[in-house]
Design a protein that fits this description.
The chain is mostly helical. It has a single domain, classed as Up-down Bundle (Four Helix Bundle (Hemerythrin (Met), subunit A)), CATH 1.20.120.80. It contains 5 helices and no strands.
Length: about 190
C-alpha cells in the first residue's frame, strides 16, 4: 500500500471512529430519555413512512457504491461511472425523503408539546438531521469522486478515493439502519 493511500485510509478510520463515538452517545442519550420518559410508546402508525422509504434509498446508494468499486477495480470505466451517477442520484432521493420525514417529525413534536406527552420526537428530529447533514457531506465527497471519474482519474491501480467514499456510504448505511431500528424498537 502506498504511503498516501495508507494515510488517507488511516485518517478515514480515525474519522469514522469519532463519528461512531458521537453516534453511540446520541443513541445512549435517546435511550436515557426514552427510559426516563413516562410517556406511552409512540404508535407505529405515527412514525413517518418517508423515513422508512429513505432506508431503501440508503441501501441502494451503498449497493451502487459497491458496484462502482467492483467495476473500477476491473477497469470497467463506463459501468463504474454509471454506478457513481446512480449513487449520486439516489443520495438526492434519500435527502428528499429525509426532508419530508424531518418535517413530519417536527409536526409530531409540536403536537406532542401541545399534549405534553413526549419530547422524544425532538431528539429523533435532531439525530435524523445530524445524519442527513453527514449525508450532505458524503454527497460532496461523492461529487468530487464523480468529477475525478469523469476525467478518468481512477483505474484498476489507483482507486482508493472511490474505496474510501464507498466505505463512508456503507458507514452511513449502518448508522441509519441501527438508528432507525432503535427508534422503531423503543417506540
Amino acid at each position: 500500500m502506498r504511503r498516501d493511500e495508507y494515510q488517507a485510509k488511516f485518517g478515514f478510520y480515525l474519522f469514522t471512529a469519532s463519528l461512531t463515538a458521537f453516534f453511540l452517545s446520541g443513541m445512549v442519550a435517546y435511550g436515557i430519555i426514552r427510559i426516563a420518559s413516562k410517556a406511552p410508546a409512540i404508535p407505529l402508525n405515527t412514525f413517518p413512512p418517508s423515513l422508512l422509504l429513505s432506508t431503501l434509498c440508503m441501501f441502494l446508494v451503498s449497493f451502487a457504491m459497491h458496484k462502482a468499486v467492483v467495476n473500477v477495480r476491473r477497469e470497467r470505466q463506463v459501468p463504474f461511472r454509471r454506478w457513481l451517477y446512480s449513487a449520486a442520484a439516489l443520495s438526492l432521493v434519500f435527502l428528499g425523503f429525509q426532508t419530508v420525514g424531518l418535517h413530519a417529525l417536527l409536526e409530531l413534536h409540536m403536537a406532542a408539546l401541545e399534549d405534553g406527552t413526549t419530547k422524544q420526537f425532538a431528539l429523533m428530529f435532531f439525530l435524523v438531521l445530524v445524519h442527513a447533514l453527514h449525508v450532505v457531506g458524503g454527497m460532496s465527497f461523492l461529487s468530487g469522486v464523480v468529477m475525478r471519474a469523469r476525467r478518468h482519474y481512477y483505474d484498476h491501480e489507483k482507486h482508493w478515493g472511490v474505496d474510501i467514499c464507498a466505505m463512508y456510504w456503507h458507514f452511513l448505511d449502518v448508522v441509519w439502519i441501527v438508528m432507525l431500528g432503535i427508534f422503531l424498537l423503543s417506540r
